[in-house]
Amino acid sequence: MGGTTQRIASVDALRGLTVAAMLLVNHPGDWGHVYAPLLHAPWHGCTPTDLIFPFFLFIVGVSTALAIGPRVGQSAAPGPLRAAVIARGLRIVALGLALHALAWWLLNKPEFRIFGVLQRIGICFIAVGLVAVHLRVRGQWALLVLLLAGYGAVLQFGGGSLEKLGSLQQRIDTAVLGRFAYEWNPATGIAFDPEGLLSTLGAVATTLFGLLCGDLLRRDQPRAVLLTGVAAALVGWWWSGWLPLNKPLWTSSFVLFTGGLAAVALAAAHVWVDRLGHHPLGRAFGLNAIGAFAGGWVSSVLLAASGWMGSLYGKGFAPVGAALGPQAQSLAFAIAFVAVWAVIVWALDRRGWYWKV
């Protein structure tokens, strides 16, 4: 969606740091020995790891504002914009399905999972991209409030539990996805997917909040981004007393709390990088974000399928485990994994090679 797209170094840097964090938590050496902050909350709650995906979706919204906002402001025809948004979103979904197919084939997984991280990103990009094309800012704010209130009401008063078993999401995933969900119990027929159907409403709200903050940034209002973020985080924290912070359900309180923190991070990054001129750490990852995520997935699957993963981890990182314990060994592997990809995206950036989906 080329020509008039605004590139802001701080946005690329924040996106890149988020992708690096994704690689860190998704590729430990041993899932049985991971430091608690690098794991998701068991159910209700919010760990540092639970911030990563909402931060990325928030940045998807910010980037959408920077890409589409100028064109809408220049009264560009909505048809081509709409077609470009849908086409790109579907490509991201297709890539996610291809990565799942690779893991299902090479790792002999019993079932194929339909939904996932890239699929959710693609769906949220399409939804919020169309909002950016067809709704002005006041309408976008109204839609966000309606979405948060409506989804929160459905979760709290829609007849389901806020626990995994019995939640509306679990019931819908069981009925619609079945064996193609992330979690599937063939004995009970119960399914659950943390990127399932119902919680996509919360994920869209996070992306829409990013769109609105991106519009503020595009208009050079970082103070407004900061104040909006602080207010959202406080309201989300307050709301969590009734509707808990929960990533798998992507509750409305979780949207506001994590989106607010992401907005604060965006405002801070903008001042640090764009205003004060400091180095945009993570920018190379940000410019090849989807490529780094997909490449990390493929390399991990190939290492596991070839049988090299166990040998590499057991032999190459054993001295760390012997000296500092099994959790440190697992973390050392994850850091090394990120470091390898940092070198790759740095080399790609040096050559001006960027993978656009």
Automatic annotation (TrEMBL):
It comes from the Bacteria. Residues 7-148 form the Heparan-alpha-glucosaminide N-acetyltransferase catalytic domain. The keyword Ligase does not apply. InterPro entries: HGSNAT_cat (IPR012429), MFS_trans_sf (IPR036259). Pfam families: HGSNAT_cat. The chain crosses the membrane at residues 51-68, 89-107, 113-134, 141-159, 196-217, 224-242, 254-273, 285-308, 328-348. Keywords: Acyltransferase, Membrane, Transferase, Transmembrane, Transmembrane helix. GO terms for molecular function: acyltransferase activity. This is Acyltransferase family protein. It comes from Pelomonas parva.
